[in-house]
Amino acid sequence: MIKWLVPVLALALIAAACGGDDGDTAAPDTDAAPTTEAATPAPTDDGEAAAPAAPAEEEVTLTQGESGSAAQTVVSGNLLDEIKDRGTLKVGMVLQFEPQMYIDENGEPAGYDVDLMHMLAEDLGVELEINDLEFDAMIPGLLARQFDMASVGLVGRPARLEQLWFTCPYVPYGQVVVVNNDSAVKTRSDLNSSDVTMTALAGSTAANLISKDFSEATLVELDQAPAFLEVASGRADAIVVENYLAQPFVAENPTTSILDPTDPFLAAEYGAWALPRGEVVWLEYLNGWLGYYIARGTLDDLYEKHIDTSPGIPNCT
Hints:
By secondary structure, the chain is of the alpha/beta class. It has helices at 10-17, 79-86, 112-124, 138-143, 158-161, 205-213, 224-233, 243-252, 280-295, 298-306; strands at 2-6, 35-36, 60-64, 71-75, 88-93, 102-103, 109-110, 127-132, 149-154, 164-180, 197-201, 218-222, 238-242, 256-258, 267-276. The strands form three sheets. Strands 1, 2, 5, 8, 9, 10, 11, 12, 13, 14 and 15 form an eleven-stranded mixed sheet that branches. A two-stranded antiparallel sheet has the order 3-4. Strands 6-7 form a two-stranded antiparallel sheet.
Protein backbone atom coordinates (compact mmCIF):
# COMPACT_ATOMS: atom_id res chain seq x y z
CA MET A 1 0.00 0.00 0.00
CA ILE A 2 1.26 3.48 -0.83
CA LYS A 3 0.16 6.73 0.75
CA TRP A 4 1.31 10.01 -0.70
CA LEU A 5 1.11 13.42 0.82
CA VAL A 6 1.83 17.02 -0.02
CA PRO A 7 3.08 18.07 3.44
CA VAL A 8 1.90 21.30 4.99
CA LEU A 9 4.02 22.96 7.66
CA ALA A 10 4.65 25.93 5.41
CA LEU A 11 4.78 28.35 8.32
CA ALA A 12 7.26 26.22 10.19
CA LEU A 13 9.54 26.00 7.17
CA ILE A 14 9.33 29.73 6.51
CA ALA A 15 10.17 30.54 10.11
CA ALA A 16 13.12 28.17 10.01
CA ALA A 17 14.34 29.47 6.68
CA CYS A 18 14.18 33.17 7.48
CA GLY A 19 17.19 32.79 9.73
CA GLY A 20 19.28 32.17 7.20
CA ASP A 21 22.58 21.82 -3.41
CA ASP A 22 23.34 21.32 -5.80
CA GLY A 23 20.17 19.83 -6.06
CA ASP A 24 20.31 17.63 -8.65
CA THR A 25 17.48 17.60 -10.40
CA ALA A 26 15.66 17.25 -7.57
CA ALA A 27 13.43 15.06 -8.60
CA PRO A 28 11.45 16.05 -6.51
CA ASP A 29 9.80 12.72 -3.80
CA THR A 30 5.50 10.13 -4.01
CA ASP A 31 3.75 9.09 -1.59
CA ALA A 32 -5.36 6.29 -0.82
CA ALA A 33 -6.79 9.66 -1.52
CA PRO A 34 -4.04 12.22 -1.21
CA THR A 35 -4.19 14.82 1.51
CA THR A 36 -2.84 18.20 0.59
CA GLU A 37 -0.35 20.31 2.42
CA ALA A 38 1.84 23.07 1.15
CA ALA A 39 5.64 23.20 1.35
CA THR A 40 7.52 26.47 1.14
CA PRO A 41 10.87 27.01 -0.67
CA ALA A 42 13.63 28.78 1.18
CA PRO A 43 16.97 29.18 -0.61
CA THR A 44 20.13 30.00 1.31
CA ASP A 45 22.85 32.38 0.29
CA ASP A 46 24.80 29.63 -1.44
CA GLY A 47 21.86 28.24 -3.35
CA GLU A 48 21.16 25.48 -0.87
CA ALA A 49 17.69 25.12 0.57
CA ALA A 50 17.47 26.89 3.92
CA ALA A 51 16.73 24.75 6.90
CA PRO A 52 16.36 24.80 10.64
CA ALA A 53 19.37 23.96 12.70
CA ALA A 54 20.23 20.28 12.43
CA PRO A 55 18.95 18.24 15.33
CA ALA A 56 21.43 16.88 17.81
CA GLU A 57 23.07 13.69 16.68
CA GLU A 58 21.95 10.49 18.32
CA GLU A 59 23.83 9.38 21.42
CA VAL A 60 26.17 6.47 20.77
CA THR A 61 27.42 4.36 23.68
CA LEU A 62 29.99 1.59 23.48
CA THR A 63 29.54 -1.33 25.87
CA GLN A 64 31.61 -4.45 26.38
CA GLY A 65 30.19 -7.86 25.57
CA GLU A 66 30.17 -10.48 28.30
CA SER A 67 33.44 -11.91 27.07
CA GLY A 68 35.03 -8.46 27.03
CA SER A 69 36.59 -9.28 23.64
CA ALA A 70 34.44 -7.02 21.44
CA ALA A 71 32.58 -3.75 21.71
CA GLN A 72 28.95 -3.53 20.76
CA THR A 73 27.48 -0.30 19.47
CA VAL A 74 24.25 0.75 21.14
CA VAL A 75 22.45 3.57 19.34
CA SER A 76 19.79 5.56 21.15
CA GLY A 77 16.97 6.67 18.85
CA ASN A 78 17.61 4.19 16.03
CA LEU A 79 15.61 5.47 13.04
CA LEU A 80 15.57 2.04 11.39
CA ASP A 81 13.83 0.54 14.44
CA GLU A 82 11.46 3.52 14.54
CA ILE A 83 10.45 2.91 10.90
CA LYS A 84 9.83 -0.78 11.60
CA ASP A 85 7.84 -0.03 14.77
CA ARG A 86 5.62 2.59 13.11
CA GLY A 87 5.11 0.38 10.02
CA THR A 88 5.65 3.23 7.56
CA LEU A 89 8.63 4.46 5.54
CA LYS A 90 8.29 8.22 5.03
CA VAL A 91 10.12 9.51 1.96
CA GLY A 92 10.52 13.05 0.66
CA MET A 93 10.37 13.40 -3.14
CA VAL A 94 9.74 15.97 -5.86
CA LEU A 95 7.33 14.40 -8.33
CA GLN A 96 8.13 16.74 -11.20
CA PHE A 97 10.97 14.98 -13.01
CA GLU A 98 9.61 12.43 -15.47
CA PRO A 99 10.77 9.71 -15.92
CA GLN A 100 12.83 9.69 -12.71
CA MET A 101 9.91 10.64 -10.45
CA TYR A 102 6.54 12.03 -11.44
CA ILE A 103 2.76 11.61 -11.22
CA ASP A 104 1.40 9.37 -13.98
CA GLU A 105 -1.82 9.64 -15.98
CA ASN A 106 -3.68 7.82 -13.20
CA GLY A 107 -2.58 10.40 -10.64
CA GLU A 108 -0.16 7.98 -8.98
CA PRO A 109 3.56 8.39 -8.23
CA ALA A 110 5.73 6.64 -10.81
CA GLY A 111 9.29 6.45 -12.10
CA TYR A 112 12.73 5.10 -11.27
CA ASP A 113 12.92 6.50 -7.73
CA VAL A 114 9.36 5.46 -6.94
CA ASP A 115 10.06 1.85 -7.96
CA LEU A 116 13.13 1.82 -5.72
CA MET A 117 11.13 3.16 -2.78
CA HIS A 118 8.50 0.46 -3.26
CA MET A 119 11.27 -2.16 -3.22
CA LEU A 120 12.84 -0.66 -0.08
CA ALA A 121 9.52 -0.50 1.80
CA GLU A 122 8.70 -4.10 0.80
CA ASP A 123 12.05 -5.35 2.07
CA LEU A 124 11.51 -3.47 5.34
CA GLY A 125 8.02 -4.96 5.65
CA VAL A 126 6.36 -1.54 5.95
CA GLU A 127 4.03 0.72 3.99
CA LEU A 128 5.39 3.52 1.80
CA GLU A 129 4.39 7.13 2.40
CA ILE A 130 5.64 9.60 -0.22
CA ASN A 131 5.72 13.28 0.70
CA ASP A 132 5.57 15.30 -2.54
CA LEU A 133 7.40 18.61 -2.07
CA GLU A 134 8.89 21.48 -3.98
CA PHE A 135 12.63 21.02 -4.43
CA ASP A 136 13.72 23.86 -2.17
CA ALA A 137 11.58 22.52 0.70
CA MET A 138 13.31 19.14 0.63
CA ILE A 139 16.33 19.81 2.85
CA PRO A 140 14.39 21.87 5.44
CA GLY A 141 11.80 19.10 5.67
CA LEU A 142 14.44 16.42 6.16
CA LEU A 143 16.25 18.44 8.81
CA ALA A 144 12.92 18.91 10.61
CA ARG A 145 12.55 15.11 10.42
CA GLN A 146 9.24 15.27 8.62
CA PHE A 147 10.36 12.15 6.75
CA ASP A 148 13.03 9.46 7.07
CA MET A 149 14.97 10.09 3.87
CA ALA A 150 14.95 12.13 0.67
CA SER A 151 14.97 10.34 -2.67
CA VAL A 152 15.44 13.13 -5.18
CA GLY A 153 18.91 12.46 -6.57
CA LEU A 154 20.74 14.99 -4.41
CA VAL A 155 24.46 15.38 -5.01
CA GLY A 156 26.45 15.49 -1.77
CA ARG A 157 28.06 18.91 -2.24
CA PRO A 158 30.22 20.17 0.66
CA ALA A 159 27.57 22.64 1.91
CA ARG A 160 25.01 19.84 2.04
CA LEU A 161 27.41 17.51 3.83
CA GLU A 162 27.39 19.91 6.76
CA GLN A 163 23.66 19.33 7.19
CA LEU A 164 22.91 15.79 6.04
CA TRP A 165 24.34 12.34 5.56
CA PHE A 166 24.36 10.76 2.09
CA THR A 167 24.30 7.15 0.95
CA CYS A 168 26.24 5.60 -1.88
CA PRO A 169 25.15 6.86 -5.32
CA TYR A 170 22.01 5.34 -6.82
CA VAL A 171 21.35 7.43 -9.96
CA PRO A 172 23.70 8.78 -12.66
CA TYR A 173 23.33 12.25 -14.17
CA GLY A 174 24.73 13.87 -17.30
CA GLN A 175 24.39 17.67 -17.33
CA VAL A 176 23.84 19.27 -20.76
CA VAL A 177 23.07 22.75 -22.11
CA VAL A 178 19.84 23.45 -23.99
CA VAL A 179 19.84 26.68 -26.00
CA ASN A 180 17.27 28.76 -27.83
CA ASN A 181 18.07 28.40 -31.53
CA ASP A 182 17.89 32.18 -32.07
CA SER A 183 20.44 32.83 -29.34
CA ALA A 184 23.94 34.03 -30.16
CA VAL A 185 25.24 31.06 -28.16
CA LYS A 186 26.64 28.57 -30.65
CA THR A 187 29.51 27.00 -28.69
CA ARG A 188 30.24 26.30 -25.03
CA SER A 189 32.75 29.17 -24.91
CA ASP A 190 29.96 31.61 -25.83
CA LEU A 191 28.19 30.89 -22.54
CA ASN A 192 30.63 32.72 -20.28
CA SER A 193 29.56 36.22 -21.26
CA SER A 194 27.72 39.05 -19.56
CA ASP A 195 25.42 39.14 -22.58
CA VAL A 196 24.15 35.63 -21.84
CA THR A 197 21.26 34.71 -19.53
CA MET A 198 21.15 31.13 -18.26
CA THR A 199 18.50 29.36 -16.17
CA ALA A 200 18.60 26.38 -13.82
CA LEU A 201 16.52 24.69 -11.17
CA ALA A 202 16.82 26.77 -8.00
CA GLY A 203 19.37 25.36 -5.57
CA SER A 204 20.40 22.57 -7.93
CA THR A 205 23.71 21.11 -9.04
CA ALA A 206 23.08 22.73 -12.42
CA ALA A 207 22.81 26.19 -10.82
CA ASN A 208 26.02 25.56 -8.91
CA LEU A 209 27.76 24.48 -12.11
CA ILE A 210 26.73 27.68 -13.93
CA SER A 211 27.98 29.82 -11.05
CA LYS A 212 31.39 28.16 -11.17
CA ASP A 213 31.97 27.54 -14.89
CA PHE A 214 30.06 30.44 -16.48
CA SER A 215 30.41 33.14 -13.85
CA GLU A 216 30.14 36.00 -16.35
CA ALA A 217 26.66 34.93 -17.45
CA THR A 218 23.49 36.04 -15.65
CA LEU A 219 22.03 33.12 -13.72
CA VAL A 220 18.26 32.99 -13.11
CA GLU A 221 17.17 30.24 -10.71
CA LEU A 222 13.58 29.01 -11.07
CA ASP A 223 11.42 25.95 -10.68
CA GLN A 224 12.15 23.40 -13.42
CA ALA A 225 9.24 24.10 -15.79
CA PRO A 226 9.61 27.92 -15.75
CA ALA A 227 13.37 27.53 -16.22
CA PHE A 228 12.73 25.54 -19.42
CA LEU A 229 10.08 27.97 -20.64
CA GLU A 230 12.41 30.96 -20.32
CA VAL A 231 14.66 29.33 -22.91
CA ALA A 232 11.85 28.18 -25.20
CA SER A 233 10.41 31.71 -25.25
CA GLY A 234 13.79 33.33 -25.92
CA ARG A 235 13.85 35.30 -22.66
CA ALA A 236 16.92 33.27 -21.70
CA ASP A 237 19.68 31.94 -23.90
CA ALA A 238 20.31 28.57 -22.26
CA ILE A 239 19.54 26.17 -19.45
CA VAL A 240 21.77 23.58 -17.78
CA VAL A 241 19.79 20.44 -17.02
CA GLU A 242 20.01 16.66 -16.84
CA ASN A 243 20.13 14.98 -20.22
CA TYR A 244 17.10 12.77 -19.53
CA LEU A 245 15.00 15.94 -19.03
CA ALA A 246 16.58 17.80 -21.93
CA GLN A 247 15.85 15.18 -24.58
CA PRO A 248 12.03 15.18 -24.36
CA PHE A 249 11.94 18.96 -23.93
CA VAL A 250 13.90 19.57 -27.13
CA ALA A 251 11.74 17.04 -28.99
CA GLU A 252 8.60 18.98 -27.99
CA ASN A 253 10.09 22.46 -28.50
CA PRO A 254 11.66 22.86 -31.96
CA THR A 255 12.88 26.37 -31.08
CA THR A 256 15.48 24.73 -28.82
CA SER A 257 18.37 22.29 -29.21
CA ILE A 258 21.12 20.64 -27.18
CA LEU A 259 24.38 22.53 -27.46
CA ASP A 260 27.25 20.63 -29.07
CA PRO A 261 25.30 17.37 -29.51
CA THR A 262 28.39 15.34 -30.41
CA ASP A 263 29.94 16.16 -27.02
CA PRO A 264 27.05 17.49 -24.94
CA PHE A 265 27.98 16.68 -21.36
CA LEU A 266 29.24 19.42 -19.07
CA ALA A 267 29.55 17.06 -16.13
CA ALA A 268 28.78 13.48 -15.10
CA GLU A 269 27.58 13.14 -11.52
CA TYR A 270 25.71 10.76 -9.27
CA GLY A 271 22.75 11.44 -7.01
CA ALA A 272 22.37 9.84 -3.58
CA TRP A 273 19.74 9.42 -0.91
CA ALA A 274 19.91 11.92 1.95
CA LEU A 275 19.05 11.23 5.59
CA PRO A 276 19.35 12.99 8.95
CA ARG A 277 22.84 13.22 10.43
CA GLY A 278 23.65 10.82 13.23
CA GLU A 279 21.52 7.90 11.99
CA VAL A 280 24.36 5.38 11.82
CA VAL A 281 22.26 2.21 11.69
CA TRP A 282 19.89 3.64 9.06
CA LEU A 283 22.82 4.75 6.88
CA GLU A 284 24.49 1.35 7.13
CA TYR A 285 21.24 -0.39 6.23
CA LEU A 286 20.63 1.81 3.17
CA ASN A 287 24.19 1.42 1.91
CA GLY A 288 24.01 -2.34 2.41
CA TRP A 289 20.67 -2.44 0.58
CA LEU A 290 22.07 -0.45 -2.34
CA GLY A 291 25.19 -2.59 -2.47
CA TYR A 292 23.10 -5.77 -2.64
CA TYR A 293 20.95 -4.61 -5.55
CA ILE A 294 23.69 -2.75 -7.45
CA ALA A 295 25.83 -5.90 -7.46
CA ARG A 296 22.92 -7.86 -8.94
CA GLY A 297 22.30 -5.33 -11.71
CA THR A 298 18.85 -4.43 -10.40
CA LEU A 299 19.43 -0.66 -10.39
CA ASP A 300 20.90 -0.73 -13.90
CA ASP A 301 17.83 -2.67 -15.11
CA LEU A 302 15.43 -0.20 -13.48
CA TYR A 303 17.34 2.77 -14.89
CA GLU A 304 17.12 1.33 -18.41
CA LYS A 305 13.41 0.55 -17.91
CA HIS A 306 12.55 4.13 -16.98
CA ILE A 307 15.26 6.42 -18.31
CA ASP A 308 17.95 5.23 -20.74
CA THR A 309 20.89 2.91 -21.15
CA SER A 310 22.69 2.87 -17.83
CA PRO A 311 26.26 4.21 -17.80
CA GLY A 312 26.84 1.93 -14.81
CA ILE A 313 26.22 2.64 -11.16
CA PRO A 314 29.32 2.36 -8.93
CA ASN A 315 29.47 -0.47 -6.46
CA CYS A 316 28.56 0.49 -2.92
CA THR A 317 31.39 -0.73 -0.70
